[in-house]
Write a structure and sequence with these properties.
By secondary structure, the protein is an all-alpha fold. The chain has a domain of 231 residues.
C-alpha cells in the first residue's frame, strides 16, 4: 500500500483534473437513444453467457464426474461478476469458485481444482486480447499514451499464459511420482494445477478459447451499440480501441470498477475520433453503467437464489485454508444462520434451487 499510495494519489488527481462539468454530462444523457441502450444490454448479456459457457468447458476438464450443472456454473459466474464490480481487486474470481464449490460433491477435494479452472478460464482472455490488439493496431487510431499500458497488459498476459501451459504439462508428467509426496499442501497444489488440465487438450482448449473470443466480440458489439445510444458516429475500430483501453483500466483495479479512471481513459481514447472529451466522459459513464447493470443485476439475483448475503460475499476472500477444506464452512454457516436452515454436509450435492 505504501508503494501504491503515490501512484493512486496521482491517478485520482488526474481524474479530478480531467473531470468535465456535470451540466455537460447531464446534457449528454438527455439525448440518449434508449432503444440502443436496450440493445447494448442484450449484447452484454450474450457476452456474459458465452464467457460462462467457456468456463463450463474448462471445468469439464478440471473436475471428475459428477460435474456441476450448467445453471450452477452460470449462477457462480454471475456472482463473480458482482464481486468484481463492487469490490476492489479481483475478488469476484475467488467468489465464483467458492459459490460453485457448494454445488459439487467432495468439496475439500474439488475446491482447488475449481479455483485452478477459474484461473485457466482467465487465461483464455489472452487469445482474445491478442486478436483485439492486432485488430486495433491495423484499424484504429491509438493514442500514444495508451501504448505503454497495452504493451504491459499484453506482456503480462502472455507470460501468465506460457507459465500456465508449462505448469500444466509438468504436472501431467510428474503427477504419478509427485502427488502426495509432501502431504496435504502438495496435494492441494497438485489439485489446483490440475484445474489447468484443459491446456493439455487442444480440442477443448480451442472450444473454450472460441467461446471466450465470441464473448469479447459480443462485448465489442455492445460498445458499438452504446455509441449509437450516445449519438457518437464512430466506427467498429473505435469500439475496439475503447474495449482495449477499458480492459487495461480494469485489469488491475485499485478500487471497485476503477470508476473515474475508466471514464477518463475511454474519453481520451475517443478524442482522436472527433468526440469531445466531455461527451466521451459521459459516454464512459453510460457504458460502465450498462455493463455493471448486467453483472450486478444477475449477480444479486443469483446471490439471493443461493441464499448468500452480500456481507458473506465480502468475507469470501478471507476464508482460511481450513474453512475451504472443511467445505467452506464460513460461507455455509453464515447462510444457515441467515435462513434458519442447517448447513449442508461437506460431501453432499446441493439440489437445484436449494438454499444454504
Amino acid at each position: 500500500m505504501a508503494l501504491l499510495a503515490p501512484l493512486l494519489a496521482a491517478v485520482v488527481a488526474v481524474v479530478i483534473w480531467r473531470a468535465p462539468d456535470l451540466d455537460v454530462i447531464g446534457g449528454a444523457f438527455t439525448e440518449v437513444a434508449w432503444a440502443w441502450v436496450a440493445a447494448a444490454i442484450g449484447a452484454n448479456l450474450l457476452s456474459v453467457t458465452l464467457r460462462a459457457v467457456a468456463w463450463g468447458v474448462v471445468l469439464d476438464r478440471a473436475l471428475p464426474a459428477p460435474r456441476p450443472r450448467r445453471h450452477h456454473v452460470f449462477s457462480a459466474f454471475c456472482i463473480g461478476l458482482l464481486g468484481n464490480a463492487v469490490l476492489p481487486g479481483r475478488v469476484g474470481d475467488v467468489a465464483r469458485a467458492a459459490a460453485l464449490t457448494r454445488h459439487v460433491p467432495h468439496r475439500s477435494s474439488n475446491w482447488p481444482a475449481i479455483f485452478g479452472a477459474s484461473f485457466a478460464h482467465r487465461l483464455f482472455d489472452v487469445p482474445a486480447t491478442i486478436a483485439l490488439v492486432g485488430y486495433v493496431l491495423v484499424t484504429a487510431r491509438i493514442p500514444s499514451w495508451a501504448v505503454p499500458g497495452i504493451e504491459v497488459v499484453l506482456a503480462v498476459s502472455l507470460a501468465l499464459f506460457v507459465g500456465a501451459v508449462v505448469l500444466a504439462w509438468r504436472y501431467h508428467k510428474r503427477e504419478r511420482s509427485d502427488a502426495g509426496a509432501f502431504g496435504r499442501a502438495s496435494r492441494l497444489w497438485h489439485m489446483a494445477i490440475g484445474g489447468l488440465g484443459i491446456l493439455r487438450t487442444p480440442g477443448p482448449a480451442a472450444a473454450a478459447a472460441a467461446f471466450q473470443i465470441l464473448g469479447w466480440a459480443a462485448q465489442l458489439v455492445a460498445i458499438y451499440f452504446t455509441f449509437k445510444a450516445f449519438q457518437i458516429e464512430a466506427s467498429m475500430a473505435a469500439a475496439g480501441l475503447v474495449l482495449l483501453v477499458a480492459s487495461v483500466a480494469l485489469a488491475f483495479p485499485l478500487w471497485p470498477g476503477s470508476v473515474g479512471l475508466f471514464q477518463a481513459g475511454v474519453a481520451l481514447a475517443l478524442v482522436p475520433y472527433g468526440v469531445a472529451y466531455q461527451h466521451g466522459f459521459a459516454y464512459g459513464i453510460g457504458l460502465q453503467a450498462i455493463e455493471v447493470s448486467v453483472g450486478v443485476g444477475l449477480g444479486l439475483a443469483f446471490l439471493a437464489r443461493e441464499g448468500i448475503s452480500f456481507a458473506t460475499l465480502k468475507r469470501i476472500p478471507r476464508v482460511t485454508p481450513g474453512d475451504v477444506t472443511d467445505g467452506l464452512g464460513d460461507l455455509d454457516g453464515a447462510g444457515a444462520r441467515a435462513t434458519g436452515r442447517p448447513a449442508p454436509r461437506a460431501d453432499a450435492r446441493v439440489s437445484p434451487g436449494a438454499g444454504v
